[in-house]
Design goal:
The protein has about 325 residues and is α+β, with helices and mostly antiparallel strands. It is built from nine helices and 14 strands. The two termini are about 50 Å apart.
Amino acid sequence: MTHKKPLHTPHRSSKKNKNIWREYPRTISDDLQKIAAEKGYRIDRGIRDHQHVVLECLTCGGHTAQRIATLRTAQPACAPCQLAARHSDAEAVGITLLRRDDDHRHDYWYLLPCGHEKRLQWTRVQRLAREGFVPNCSGFHCEPCYKQELKNTAAQWGWSLVGADPDENPNYRLLSHDACGHQQRVATANIETGRFNCGACGECWTAAESIIYLMRFRVPEFGTFVKAGFSKNPDSRMRHQLGLREDVEAEILDEVPTPSGQVAIRLEKDLHRRLRAAHPGKVVPRERLRPWVKVTSEIYTADAEPIIRRMLDEIESPRWPRKTKIKPAPED
């Protein structure tokens, strides 16, 4: 027997053989039909095996395969009604629902206004529809469109987009300078504003030689602390930029020269990340020294001094785990 109405099957069965959903001859009792009617359905026929039936929705007329146990103990959901609602939500936000994603039960594939397909959670589309979302591709973060936008913006500043960040930070991209061919990581926010410079041929701090330093300072009534950072001129930074009070004694303990500010900030961030991970108890809370030091981050207790000295020694040696050359990453 051929049935004209499409049959909606459970998501968990999407990868099973379609032939299992063949008609199963059985007698539908009046009691079972009564239960179905109370829940908004009519049992159309048996299907698959003795545990399954096809429910016909009394509202939309759609057919959904359902277990008899679910019909008896719960309120079965009408798959055609759900699908119609999800089509309506998609239309409300200016996109088109294409198909269900068989690997993710909460996801569907949608066609964005730009012509690209994107997988989205239907609950997100529903929420945007309820909130009166204004349709546009950027609201759904279309990856191909965003990538092209970054390419166009980088080109305005004289750069080419190479691909994803080699360090796998989603907020960065790898760019190549059209003028000299130098490649470097740039934050996507800076690509959009143009607030970055070439680390090879530029004239700003990113290209100029820089120094990673270790500083010790003594705060009255609080004791001794150390700070690691980088600067083109550590002595000037200590005396003029940190805003130390006059009664705070400070001195530079160690310096490691680097070829550029870009290299310095990368090594310095790695140093702090490793130090915080291995010795969280040596990190000084920001609020503790606020009245005495203008910059209250990246400050550690005095007993961290030998640890930081060893790390600076490693930076000067090949043992420091850093990339000596940036390799292009696969395009995102």
